[in-house]
Write a structure and sequence with these properties.
By secondary structure, this protein is α/β, with parallel strands linked by helices. The protein contains eight helices and eleven strands. Strands 5-4-3-6-7-8-9-10-11 form a nine-stranded mixed β-sheet, with helices on both faces. Strands 1-2 form a two-stranded antiparallel sheet.
Length: 284
């Protein structure tokens, strides 16, 4: 029996039991991102998606308005209940909303260190002008970088966010003397880093994969359609699915970028806001 992703890939044969991806993230009622979107992406790529809820968003197609965090105890209970029941081939960590939640996910990743973790860095931080909330966001940012980043096998992040964090002092250099923010992440404990939309030396933008011993690979970053959601969360989930299926890091990255690009090329606009990537469609 053949299985189609419906966005330009060749069919793959269904396994007796699909690879399992466990995603940590929020419930986004619009389906633009978060756990509902992760489940669809996993299904489109032949995997079975498990969900651990980190928060609940108030969001429509224009973007998030607010987030309600779940307690770290509840996040831990959800994850460990699933992990004691089913074998998981990859983790994906999306948005978390408290330092304690980041710590819990980091501990789970450490306890299951043989299971690759794909981290979407930068997810879940909502704009705020409140000083207390800004301080809380900074503490969360520090917890993610200090606790969760070193547990991740690969981190996916938009280049413009890394540059902004470096300029604002939110990306500590530590002992790194690098100028490239992705290399600073490597020097601070990241294993692999995929930066999306990084300026290329010859001009234009690329998606750059940086790994151990300064291994690199790059792919053209094609301009997305206007008014579409960013590709980082979509790419991170697809990457987790390909890693769960046994692809090595370079091949998983290439396949995930292709999937994300094609999903955006087939995007649609269900509401008055942004266009949504078409993560799944059957094809005869």
């Amino acid at each position: 029996m053949g299985y189609f992703t419906g966005i330009g890939e060749r069919p793959v044969t269904l396994a007796a039991s699909p690879s399992i991806v466990l995603a940590f993230g929020p419930f986004d009622p619009s389906g633009a991102d978060g756990l509902p979107a992760d489940a669809v992406t996993c299904g489109a790529l032949g995997c079975y998606g498990l969900s651990v809820l980190s928060g609940i968003l108030v969001q429509d197609s224009t973007g998030p308005e607010s987030a309600q965090a779940l307690s770290p105890e509840l996040i831990d209970d959800q994850a460990r209940s699933l992990l004691e029941d089913m074998p998981v081939q990859a983790f994906k960590a999306g948005a978390v909303y408290t330092p304690e939640a980041a710590s819990v996910i980091a501990q789970i990743a450490a306890d299951y260190s043989e299971t690759p973790l794909v981290l979407h860095l930068g997810a879940g931080l909502l704009p705020t002008e409140d000083a207390a909330e800004a301080d809380a966001d900074e503490a969360l940012h520090e917890a993610i970088l200090e606790l969760l980043l070193p547990q991740a096998h690969i981190t996916v992040v938009e280049h413009h966010l890394l540059t902004r964090w470096l300029d604002e002092g939110l990306l500590p250099r530590g002992d790194s003397d690098a100028d490239d923010p992705a290399q600073i992440l490597i020097d601070n404990g990241a294993q692999w880093v995929l930066t999306l939309g990084q300026p290329a030396p010859q001009g234009g933008l690329i998606n750059l994969l940086l790994g151990p011993s300064r291994q690199t690979a790059s792919w053209p970053c094609l301009p997305t359609q206007p008014r579409t959601h960013d590709t980082a969360g979509l790419t991170a989930t697809a990457l987790a699915a390909y890693v769960a299926r046994g692809n090595d890091m370079r091949d998983a990255t290439e396949q995930a970028l292709r999937y994300a690009r094609q999903a955006l090329e087939h995007s649609f606009q269900p509401g008055m806001g942004l266009r949504m990537p078409r993560r799944f469609a059957a094809e005869a």
